[in-house]
């Protein structure tokens, strides 16, 4: 998997990075984990290894960046635009 520095991702620069998560369950199917939050709008969806609602949301909304939940210093950030993890 590719890893990219945040400063080199144009999507990250254009995305507000302060999202608050009220409920970490998938908005579509209610799955509790693993889930991802959209960094553009705060939508929570499940990951590709389950029902893929985070990916579906990113495609439908053109919101490129997700972060893994629960939010923690170790949670990863993925950019669909760059197809890479951001660090
Ligand atoms: Zn789901
Ligand atoms: Zn979104
Ligand atoms: Zn990007």
Question: Can you put this structure into words, describing what you see?
Answer:
The protein is α+β, with helices and mostly antiparallel strands and 87 residues long. The chain has a single domain (3-86), classed as Zinc/RING finger domain, C3HC4 (zinc finger) (Herpes Virus-1, 2-Layer Sandwich). 15% of the residues lie in helices and 22% in strands. It contains two helices and six strands; from the N terminus they run E-H-E-E-H-E-E-E. It has helices spanning 10-13, 53-61, and strands spanning 3-4, 35-38, 44-46, 65-68, 77-79, 84-86. A six-stranded mixed beta sheet has the order 1-6-5-4-2-3, covered by helices on one side. A hairpin with a 4-residue loop joins strand 5 (77-79) and strand 6. The protein is globular, with a radius of gyration of 12 Å. The structure holds zinc ion (3 copies).
